[in-house]
């Protein structure tokens, strides 16, 4: 499926300034590789970086987090590498406490649910265990993360002193996929079944829309982003775009979000996707 070209984040100075104006603190899950690592890299190297960036992953001291740790050493006053296993509620609670001790009453401005897993099996190939593991990571993880970090998001919304919704005030952006769209199953299933991934991401979409409705009174923005088919460990070598291009687009979209996009399902260009 052909993807359109992306707006360049670095060339969109107005969006950079908008996000930087109030986005004091940002948290990214699954930050040790792929899109998550690229998000951390681009945000911290922007001309107007945030003050605190919590880069979370399952094993911060393991070999798969070496690139993240190297990046953190270059920006020790901004990046804090924190353990967060999306499938472990105790880990999520501990991370929320650690983040809370840093952000205080200022709260957490932007939470990016990026951690996820992909299994490529068909219905007949997918076991109950496969489905459960995928669901635990892609749905239960984000649900528990939202719940545990909700006090910090509420604090950020209150501290902003500005009306409306934005990613620089208080927002949760979850990385979904066009494979979650019910409307495109017929045209995409044969080439990429991945049934547990599709179902779990559809569940993530519903979770996000429900959260957007339930928490709109708190002025916390919820949105879903499809990063495109990206050449990463998860996306494979045949993807349409590379991680820097995808992340440039997603950061640009995040910076432009308002209450009009609360509960929206968008691609990395900001285009609405079918449910």
UniProtKB/TrEMBL annotation:
Pfam families: adh_short (PF00106)
Single GO MF annotation: oxidoreductase activity
Gene name for this UniProt entry: LOC117734537
Superkingdom in the source lineage: Eukaryota
SMART domains: PKS_KR
Residue ranges constituting the Ketoreductase domain according to the UniProt record: 24-198
Record SUPFAM superfamilies: NAD(P)-binding Rossmann-fold domains (SSF51735)
Gene3D superfamilies (alphabetical): NAD(P)-binding Rossmann-like Domain
Protein species of origin: Cyclopterus lumpus
InterPro entries according to UniProt: Fungal_SecMetab_SDRs, KR_dom, NAD(P)-bd_dom_sf, SDR_fam
A GO CC term attached to the entry: cytoplasm
Family as reported in the entry's similarity comment: Belongs to the short-chain dehydrogenases/reductases (SDR) family.
Official protein name in the record: Zgc:112146
């Amino acid at each position: 499926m052909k993807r359109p070209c992306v707006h360049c984040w670095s060339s969109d100075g107005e969006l950079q300034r908008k996000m930087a104006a109030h986005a004091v603190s940002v948290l990214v899950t699954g930050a040790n590789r792929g899109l998550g690592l690229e998000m951390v890299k681009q945000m911290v190297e922007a001309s107007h970086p945030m003050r605190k960036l919590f880069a979370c992953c399952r094993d911060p001291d393991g070999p798969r987090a070496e690139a993240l740790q190297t990046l953190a050493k270059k920006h020790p006053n901004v990046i804090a590498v924190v353990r967060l296993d999306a499938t472990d509620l105790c880990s999520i609670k501990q991370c929320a406490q650690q983040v809370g001790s840093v952000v205080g009453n200022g709260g957490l401005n932007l939470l990016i649910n990026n951690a996820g897993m992909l299994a490529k099996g068909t219905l007949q190939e997918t076991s109950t265990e496969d489905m459960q593991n995928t669901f635990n990571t892609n749905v239960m993880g984000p649900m528990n993360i939202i719940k545990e970090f909700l006090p910090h998001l509420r604090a950020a919304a209150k501290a902003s002193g500005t009306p409306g919704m934005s990613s620089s005030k208080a927002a949760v952006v979850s990385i979904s996929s066009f494979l979650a769209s019910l409307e495109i199953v017929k045209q995409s299933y044969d080439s990429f079944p991945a049934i547990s991934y599709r179902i779990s991401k559809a569940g993530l979409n519903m979770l996000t829309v429900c959260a957007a409705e339930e928490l709109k009174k708190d002025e916390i923005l919820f949105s879903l982003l499809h990063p495109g088919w990206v050449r990463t460990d998860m996306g494979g070598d045949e993807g349409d775009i590379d991680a820097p291009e995808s992340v440039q687009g997603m950061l640009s979209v995040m910076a432009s979000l308002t209450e009009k996009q609360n509960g929206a399902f968008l691609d990395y260009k900001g285009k609405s996707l079918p449910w």
